[in-house]
Amino acid sequence: MSEVISNKKSWENLYTSTQKLNQARSGHEMFSDTDIVSLKNLVKNILCTFLKEEILQKAMKVYIDKELQNHLVHDMAKRPPREDESIEDWCKVIFCENKFGVVFNSLESGYIWSHQPIMDD
After folding, report:
1. C or N terminus of the chain, fewer CB within 10 Å?
2. What would the pLDDT profile of 27-42 be if each residue is shown by its tens digit?
3. What DSSP line would sit under 52-119, residue for residue?
């Protein structure tokens, strides 16, 4: 995993520069191209782990054009990202050109991380 992803100081800088996550920042402004690839792979891994869970409706929420569309979670589970497929390409297949958002619930519980912390102390 990239050093910036596991570096607590980098995350603290992000937290500060975004006014406690209240202001958006482009990932390309903050991370190297290598870090962006690592972050995209991390998101893909989290997504695939959630799609394997049997409590899909509770583990994820899907929004299309700001409206809850949780019926899509089952479509997502039927067609998870392939190994050779980027997260962007997969999203185009699932969501077409719609604006969308995916909320992962219970990340703080740690079960999704397989007991491996994302940040070093």
Report:
1. C
2. 666 677 788 888 888 8
3. HSS-HHHHEEEEETTEE-THHHHHHHHSPPPTTS-HHHHHHHHHTT--EEEEE--GGGSGGGTT--SS
Length of the chain: 121
Contacts of 115 (CB under 8 A, 6+ apart): none
Q: Tokens for 91, please give them.
A: 């999203």
3-class SS string, 89-103? HHHHHHHCCCCEEEE
pLDDT over 50 at 1, yes or no: no
Token pair, residue 89, equals: 């390409």
Per domain, the residue ranges of the chain are 3-113
User: What does the angle CA 86 – CA 27 – CA 62 come to, to the nearest 5 degrees?
Assistant: 55
Q: Rounded to an integer, what distance in angstroms lies between the CA atom of residue 27 and that of residue 5?
A: 12
